[in-house]
Write a structure and sequence with these properties.
301 residues, alpha/beta, Rossmann fold, DNA polymerase, domain 1, 7-stranded mixed beta sheet, 12 helices, 7 strands
Length: 301
């Protein structure tokens, strides 16, 4: 049955890297449509256990009826708290696919896409207090510049922030259509790419995605047993830089150049793949979301 969620990117490479003990305890930290979880369960043996997380209530509708499976409604940044509450103190592997799903992009009430007129929301957890509208209508000009330049790497962040302030002084921005009217005239180069960067920046801010990723990595590695695997699929350079540095030496800063940190010999993780794994041409033709994906796998010493 189709769930409306995207086809998992590099599905078999992810599970091959994750599942080294078929009777182990595993975590799917970003359940979504359940594609990764179903493949993990298919490969598990009778004593295996899978615990999945998702903060989006809509994802709960995709739960899997399996005695070896449990789905938790929660943000993966609190993985250690939730696992210990469930009586789990160590796991054999943790998988995180950081991409936004097709379902989230296509549902008008979520406001992740460029569709004109839809609700400009972008909250992955509908219980969160701040939406995209709140960000663009209430953040200071200085903060907006920082959001667009840091989280979206938007080159004309100052011009964009000033245009947003000018627009909202006349009338508060109330939907995606009005926001696009403000942004589109400022697009530099490829329009679709520019808008993707702007929307990415707002989405990251709304959901505190960088902070959540940093918390998740630190908590997740503590929960792994020696030999346990951390498998992370990223879709933009900011996330990939954080994951790469964390695997190398436990650092999660994302504002430094990609080669700023050297590996630490005494760090607890060992990279399985020194360079990120990327999708082949056939998968990219079949699934355009695979084009920007980078897969990193590490093992706990």
């Amino acid at each position: 049955m189709s769930t409306g969620y995207h086809e998992p990117v590099m599905l078999h490479q992810c599970i091959d890297g994750l599942l080294w003990q078929e009777n182990g305890i595993y975590v799917d930290a970003t359940f979504g449509g359940g594609g990764h979880s179903r493949e993990i369960l298919n490969r598990m043996e009778s004593k295996g256990q899978l615990i999945a997380f998702d903060q989006d209530e809509d994802a709960l509708k995709n739960t899997i009826q399996d005695l070896h499976f449990q789905l938790v409604h929660g943000n993966f940044r609190f993985i250690k708290h939730y696992l210990r509450y469930l009586g789990v103190h160590q796991v054999h592997g943790i998988l995180a696919d950081l991409g936004v799903s097709s379902f989230q992009l296509d549902v008008d009430t979520k406001g992740f896409s460029f569709s004109r007129g839809n609700t400009f929301d972008m909250r992955m957890n509908q219980q969160a207090t701040r939406s995209a509208l709140d960000i663009v209508n209430h953040e200071s000009e200085e903060n907006l510049v920082n959001i667009f330049s840091t989280y979206g790497e938007v080159r004309n962040s100052k011009t964009l922030a000033k245009a947003i302030l000018t627009a909202r002084e006349l009338k508060p921005i109330s939907n995606t259509h009005e926001f696009l009217n403000c942004v589109e005239p400022l697009a530099m180069g490829n329009k679709a790419r520019y808008l993707a960067q702007v929307f990415q920046a707002i989405r990251i801010k709304v959901n505190d995605e960088i902070g959540a990723l940093q918390d998740f990595l630190a908590a997740g590695v503590d929960m792994l047993i020696p030999g346990g695997r951390l498998v992370v699929l990223t879709y933009h350079s900011i996330e990939d830089r954080i994951v790469k540095h964390f695997i190398r030496n436990g650092k999660t800063e994302f504002s430094m150049p990609s080669d700023h940190y050297d590996s630490k010999a005494d760090w607890t993780l060992r990279p399985i793949n020194k360079k990120p794994i990327v999708a082949n041409d056939e998968e990219i033709r079949r699934n355009s979301r695979a084009r920007s994906a980078k897969l990193r796998i590490a093992e706990k010493k």
